[in-house]
Structure formats: structure tokens, C-alpha cells
């Protein structure tokens, strides 16, 4: 087996966290290599366009539909979660995850260069200060070993790297603070017509629940997509938006393609290819088609001595959809190692390497998303603009977190596309009514133009039973482990969902809309709780599989993002998060990656 | 009777106008008429398609974009008839989604997805294409329901 040793740092994974760490370390003069499991070698725009055409031509439009399944580095699909039969949740046993339930784990990620930012929505919310000390404040969840103020400068770096559009004065709520005179790189993305009408229609009304009232305040969401540069950014220096990789004039502004998930055709929405390209230009090397399979370490000291990986043969994932390839095994060594392969993949890799820390793989979290939907009193023009441009933060924090989950409410601009498969479902409905021609058009226009949906991102507590494990019986084509998932949701979260469902009812009443939420009891994610029908989906926010904390008993990494038991190994990504609060996690892990890179560089120089 | 290629295309075009509710120029603008007729022929066989086109021809429509009451009744009858119901639905689905709905469903091409009439029908644009431009989503929709 060949061994290579020319690098200061080897990073596993070319997603947003690996890209940021690589770029920052290269900036400081360190020699960096990234091992990437996916097949994409080039940064030309045509290879990205190939994803777009794959999406257009895929009959199933799901988050991973532009990104072909690769048997050498398979990825989970939302369609792997089946229906509920005789009260038992069914799973596709040939899917990448081997799921044991009892609840379905419905989130996915992308194993390709650029990672899951290829299909993320782009929401860039900071976490609330209270989310970092939830255990102390509410005796719920866990505490972080760092706080909001520790992370503030790194949030700023992340907002610059991603290129976040928001107006700072709208974002200071629930104790979120910004440095004096801070502005986001770009001004806020215009709110949708729907957002504005919801504000107007619910003015003065409140959500009343358990003796408390909460305002229906619709707030613009910070987003990692290009708008107008703020001339006041960076003390008047301004900001230059970053366009598409390989076609930089494209994507300078969001153009309203309405396909952020699963693919922005012009890359006006940030993806990690942008950071990776900068890193490569600074000398970072990426080995594609190289799947890390084992971390080698010294049993006594815990020191990492190398990473074993499988390099598979050239493979056109767009055409050779089922062909597994031949591979050769190699080892790479460096002074420091970083796992940035995704929460699930990082945990899997450490378990496959025989790491002893009992917390590895535990505390798997997501944001279960309760979906509700209905019709506005008038046409609001669904299916236009980014997937979501606003949310309602009123229930993101409060003393109620002692008893039930907090949630953030995301307002969806794409009609009932997520919960009900619009507009194809309405088309089929029209045809079943024997409609055709102008009557069919009128029926579709009348229905779909008024559609909108709400998504309630329910905070989930980190629990040891929700886990990623491995099992010798379940491996992929290269002989690497398939993740085994055990997952459930607790009454704490179900109580949050009850509040969310009630919110939705009162909200539709307040705006004189028509609540059309109707759940099928046989669909994955359906539950009956205290007589109320609830149905949730995954948010794609997989987190918590190697959390940070104060010692090896309660965590895998310390506050520097370094493994307690392996001093030359750093972990990055959502796996490090002991709580997620109600924020979409990408901005926070980007911030943590800047922090990690700083620590790695200091460590290398010491 | 013998039907020429151009006659077939002409009838398919007129029938499509009536089934979709879109004008002839809008359908021509997709650049997909011949491709769709080929697609249907390929899956259902030319004879089957000819039977439908022949039934349509017999109604003798004067202006497919402005039907008389009698023409409408005849068309309704044709669309709902046992022999034609499923094929007319397939034609509508093909035009509206760019997808052939059969035993093996597939999207004919990237172009057919982007030209799917369903997006125009709902007053929007295909997800991932024909982008309306920065900030347009902040304005009221241009098309209102009657």
C-alpha cells in the first residue's frame, strides 16, 4: 500500500466546512490536501450545468435529484423512507441508511464536491445566545463549552464567506447582538409578496397558547444568496458578490429561479465550490474519488498516524448509474487531520476505525419539520422567488422550553410543493375532474395562485439513543460501512409540534385563509398525539454525532474542535453541535470552521 | 383513408390547442409539437393516434381557439369517450409537464421540462428555469384568477 506524506493537514470532505478550513489554512501558508469521495474533478461551469440538466430530466424532484447516486459513495434519499404499514414505519432496506426507527429519519445529504451546500436553501440565521446554555437556562438539552459572544467574530467571517444578505436591524431579537456599526455584506433579499400580505393580514393579531400571547411578526430571513452589496459593509469598504464558479458574471444577483433546493442554476446562492475554488487557487490539492475508510492511530497515545482511503477508477456518475468501480487502497499521513465529511460520515468513519469514545454516533439530531398548508384569501403568486424569504421567530425562545420544544416558522413561497407535490398534484386532480383546455387552466390558476405553506422547525434534544452505528453486515460497494440509524422523537418535541399545529390553526383564522392541512396516516412521519394528527418531515439538518463539551465523558471534541483523545485530529461540521436551537445550522458550522482553522494553525505553529 | 404527415401534424396541433387551453402560437413557441407527436406515436402506435386524430377531424372545427357551443359538446364527447379518455389525458400531461406518463415514465428532455405548460397555467415559471428576475417575487402576481 502506498503512503504519501507531503502535507501539513489532510481534510476528509470537500463540503463547506472542509472548504473553509482548507482555505483558511492555505491562507496562513500551510500545505493542505482534501480527500473527496465524489467524482467531480473540474471546476468548469459545464460540469455544474450537467447537474442542472440531470435535475430537469429527473421525474422525482427531491433534494438529491440533480446529484446522481454513486455506488462508490452512496447517499441517503428522502424516498428511502416508506409508508407506515400496520402501524410500522417501512424503510427501503436497499437505501444507503439502514434504519431501525422507530421513527423515520427523513433527512439527507450530498456526497459530492461542494457537499450539501449544493442543495441547501441558504438560510443563514445565527443561533440565539440562549441556545448555547440551554441546560442551565431551561434544564433541557445541553450546554455548549463556548457562548454566543465567543462565536460572534466567527459569525462575521462566515457571513462574509457565504455572502449573506440581510438587514442587521431586523435580526437583533432574543438577545442576538451585533458589533456596533455591523452590517451584512449585502442588503436583505426582497421579501415575497406573500410575506408582505401575511404581515398585513395578521396585523395586531396574536397567537394565544397556554395563557401567553405571541405576535405574528413576519421577519425577513438572512440568506446566503446574492442581493445588492451594502456600501457600508466593512466600514465603508463594500462587498463584491461572488458569482458562479467557472462563470463569474453569472449569479451576481438572485434571479428568482425558484429552485434553491435542489439547485441554483446560476449559483447566486452560495455553495462550497466557491470557497473550494479559492482554496485550490491558493495551492490546496483535492483528491476526488477518494473515500476515506479508516483512521489509523496509535493505541497508546491516541495520535493519528494516517488515513486509509480507497481511490476508485474513473466513473461517469451521470451515465454509469449502477456500476461499482475497482479501487486501490492508499494511506496518507500529515501533521494534523480534519474530519469534515458530514455528521453521519464523520461518526461512521470514527466507529469504523475503532475509536473508543462512547459519545461517537450518539445525540443524532435534526429539525423535524411539521408542515401545514392552506389558501390565502387572494392570489399571492405562489412558485416565485427563493424557497423562503421570511419567517416568524416568536416561538424560538421562552421559558416554555423547559416543557416543550421551541420552533422557528418558515414561510414557504412555493405553494404546496413540499407537502403535497404541487403543481403536479393539482394537475392530476383537474384531469380526474375531466377538465381540459381553458377550464383546466382556470382551475390550476385559481387553486395554485393562493397556495402557501408553513414549516415549523422543531428543536430536537440531543439524546444518546438517537444514533449512528455500524454493523459488519451492512456495507456499500466499496466495502465501507452503511450507517445504521436508530431514531425517535420525544414528548418534548411532540408538545412543540402540538403548539405548532395550534399556531397554524390560529394563524389561518387570523388571516381569513383556508387551512387545507390534511395528513395521511400511512405517510412516514405521521403520528397521533393527544388526539391531534401531526406529520413531520426532515429538515436536512443532521447534527450532534460527535458533540463538543468539556471532557471525554460528555463529548467527543473540546471547545477548540479537537478530539479529547486524539490531539492531532480536529472535527468540524454539525456533528460538533450539542444543541441546534431553531437555527438552520450551516452558518454556525461555517463560523465554527473559521474557529477550528485558527486553532489548527496555532497548533501547527506551536 | 391515407393521412399525410403534414395533415397529422396540423390536426395534432389543433387538438392540442383545445386540450391544453393554450394558443397555437404558444404551442409552436415551445418547439416541441413534432417531438410530442413522435413521442405519442412511439408509445401508442401511429394507428392508435390516427384513430384519435380522425375522430377529431370529423368534428370539423372551424377555429380551435374559439369553439362554437356545438363544437364544444362534440369535443367534450370525444375527450370523455372510453376509447379516447386515457390518450387525451396523456397528451395533456405531456404538454403540461414535458413528461411521458407510461409504464416507464420519463421527461422527454430538459427543454420539455422547461416548456411544461403547467407553470404558465399557474402564473409562474418552471422551477429552475425561465427566471423572472431579481426581486420580482416581491410584487403581486401578474395574472389574476377570474
Describe it.
With 606 residues, chain A is of the alpha+beta class. Chain A has helices spanning 16-27, 45-56, 134-138, 148-162, 168-171, 193-201, 233-236, 273-281, 343-352, 417-420, 424-432, 437-448, 491-510, 586-605, and strands spanning 2-12, 32-35, 81-85, 88-91, 98-102, 206-209, 212-215, 219-220, 285-287, 290-297, 304-312, 327-339, 369-375, 390-392, 407-412, 451-458, 467-469, 484-487, 514-515, 526-529, 532-537, 569-571. In chain A, strand 6 (206-209) and strand 7 form a beta hairpin. Chain A starts with a strand and ends with a helix. Chain B has one domain (5-138). In chain B, strand 1 (99-100) and strand 2 (106-107) form a beta hairpin. In chain B, helix 1 (5-20) crosses helix 4 and helix 3 crosses helix 4 (46-59). The longest helix of chain B is centred in the N-terminal third of the chain and has 16 residues, at 5-20. The model of chain B has no long low-confidence stretch (mean pLDDT 94). Chains A and B meet through helix 2, helix 11 and helix 12 of A and helix 1, helix 6, strand 2, helix 7 and helix 8 of B.
Amino acid at each position: 500500500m502506498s503512503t504519501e506524506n507531503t502535507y501539513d493537514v489532510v481534510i476528509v470532505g470537500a463540503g463547506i466546512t472542509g472548504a473553509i478550513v482548507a482555505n483558511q489554512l492555505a491562507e496562513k501558508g500551510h500545505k493542505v490536501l482534501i480527500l473527496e469521495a465524489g467524482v467531480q474533478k473540474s471546476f468548469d461551469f459545464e460540469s455544474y450545468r450537467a447537474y442542472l440538466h440531470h435535475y430537469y430530466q429527473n421525474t422525482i424532484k427531491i433534494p438529491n435529484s440533480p446529484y446522481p447516486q454513486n455506488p462508490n459513495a452512496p447517499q441517503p434519499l428522502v424516498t428511502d423512507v416508506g409508508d407506515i404499514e400496520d402501524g410500522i414505519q417501512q424503510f427501503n432496506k436497499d437505501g444507503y441508511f439502514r434504519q431501525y426507527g422507530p421513527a423515520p429519519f427523513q433527512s439527507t445529504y450530498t456526497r459530492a464536491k461542494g457537499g450539501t451546500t449544493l442543495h441547501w436553501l441558504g438560510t443563514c440565521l445565527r443561533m440565539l445566545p440562549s441556545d448555547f446554555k440551554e441546560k442551565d437556562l431551561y434544564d433541557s438539552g445541553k450546554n455548549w463549552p463556548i457562548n454566543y459572544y465567543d462565536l460572534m467574530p466567527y459569525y462575521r467571517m462566515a457571513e462574509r464567506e457565504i455572502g449573506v444578505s440581510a438587514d442587521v436591524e431586523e435580526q437583533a431579537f432574543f438577545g442576538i447582538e451585533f458589533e456596533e456599526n455591523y452590517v451584512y455584506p449585502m442588503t436583505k433579499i426582497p421579501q415575497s409578496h406573500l410575506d408582505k400580505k401575511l404581515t398585513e393580514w395578521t396585523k395586531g393579531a396574536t397567537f394565544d397558547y397556554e395563557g401567553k400571547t405571541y405576535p405574528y411578526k413576519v421577519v425577513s430571513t438572512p440568506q446566503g444568496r446574492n442581493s445588492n452589496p451594502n456600501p457600508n459593509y466593512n466600514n465603508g469598504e463594500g462587498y463584491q458578490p461572488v458569482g458562479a464558479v467557472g462563470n463569474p458574471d453569472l449569479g451576481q444577483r438572485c434571479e428568482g429561479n425558484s429552485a434553491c433546493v435542489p439547485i441554483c442554476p446560476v449559483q447566486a446562492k452560495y455553495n462550497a465550490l466557491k470557497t473550494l475554488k479559492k482554496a485550490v487557487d491558493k495551492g490546496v490539492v483535492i483528491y476526488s474519488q477518494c473515500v476515506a475508510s479508516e483512521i489509523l492511530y496509535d493505541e497508546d497515545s491516541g495520535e493519528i498516524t494516517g488515513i486509509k482511503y480507497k481511490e476508485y477508477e474513473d466513473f461517469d456518475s451521470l451515465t454509469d448509474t449502477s456500476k461499482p468501480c475497482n479501487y486501490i487502497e492508499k494511506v496518507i499521513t500529515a501533521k494534523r487531520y480534519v474530519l469534515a465529511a458530514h455528521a453521519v460520515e464523520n461518526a461512521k468513519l470514527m466507529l469504523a476505525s475503532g475509536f473508543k469514545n462512547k459519545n461517537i454516533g450518539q445525540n443524532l439530531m435534526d429539525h423535524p419539520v411539521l408542515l401545514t398548508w392552506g389558501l390565502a384569501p387572494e392570489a399571492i403568486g405562489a412558485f416565485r422567488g427563493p424557497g423562503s424569504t421570511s419567517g416568524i421567530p416568536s416561538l424560538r425562545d421562552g421559558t416554555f422550553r423547559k416543557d416543550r420544544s421551541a420552533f422557528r416558522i418558515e414561510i414557504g413561497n412555493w405553494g404546496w410543493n413540499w407537502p403535497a407535490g404541487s403543481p403536479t398534484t393539482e394537475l392530476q386532480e383537474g384531469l380526474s375532474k375531466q377538465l381540459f383546455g381553458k377550464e383546466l387552466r382556470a382551475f390550476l390558476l385559481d387553486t395554485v395562485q393562493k397556495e402557501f405553506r408553513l414549516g415549523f422547525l422543531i428543536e430536537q434534544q440531543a439524546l444518546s439513543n438517537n444514533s449512528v452505528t455500524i454493523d459488519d453486515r451492512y456495507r456499500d460497494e466499496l466495502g465501507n460501512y452503511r450507517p445504521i440509524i436508530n431514531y425517535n422523537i420525544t414528548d418534548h418535541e411532540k408538545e412543540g409540534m402540538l403548539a405548532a399545529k395550534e399556531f397554524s390553526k390560529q394563524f389561518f383564522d387570523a388571516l381569513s385563509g383556508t387551512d387545507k392541512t390534511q395528513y395521511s396516516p400511512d405517510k412516514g412521519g405521521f403520528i397521533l398525539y393527544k388526539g391531534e394528527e401531526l406529520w413531520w418531515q426532515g429538515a436536512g439538518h443532521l447534527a450532534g454525532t460527535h458533540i463538543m463539551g468539556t471532557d471525554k465523558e460528555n463529548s467527543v471534541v473540546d471547545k477548540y474542535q479537537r478530539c479529547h483523545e486524539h490531539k492531532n485530529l480536529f472535527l468540524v461540521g454539525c456533528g460538533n453541535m450539542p444543541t441546534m436551537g431553531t437555527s438552520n445550522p450551516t452558518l454556525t458550522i461555517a463560523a465554527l470552521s473559521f474557529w477550528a482553522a485558527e486553532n489548527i494553525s496555532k497548533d501547527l505553529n506551536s | 383513408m391515407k393521412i399525410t404527415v403534414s395533415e397529422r401534424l396540423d390536426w395534432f396541433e389543433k387538438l392540442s390547442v383545445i386540450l391544453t387551453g393554450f394558443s397555437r402560437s404558444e404551442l409552436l413557441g415551445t418547439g416541441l409539437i413534432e417531438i410530442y407527436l413522435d413521442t405519442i406515436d412511439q408509445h401508442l402506435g401511429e394507428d392508435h393516434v390516427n384513430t384519435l386524430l380522425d375522430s377529431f377531424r370529423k368534428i370539423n372545427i372551424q377555429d380551435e381557439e374559439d369553439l362554437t357551443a356545438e363544437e364544444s359538446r362534440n369535443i367534450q364527447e370525444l375527450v370523455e369517450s372510453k376509447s379516447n379518455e386515457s390518450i387525451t389525458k396523456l397528451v395533456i400531461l405531456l404538454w403540461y409537464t414535458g413528461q411521458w406518463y407510461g409504464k416507464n415514465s420519463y421527461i422527454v428532455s430538459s427543454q420539455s421540462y422547461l416548456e411544461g405548460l403547467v407553470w404558465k397555467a399557474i402564473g409562474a415559471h418552471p422551477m429552475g428555469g425561465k427566471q423572472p428576475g431579481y426581486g420580482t417575487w416581491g410584487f403581486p402576481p401578474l395574472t389574476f384568477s377570474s
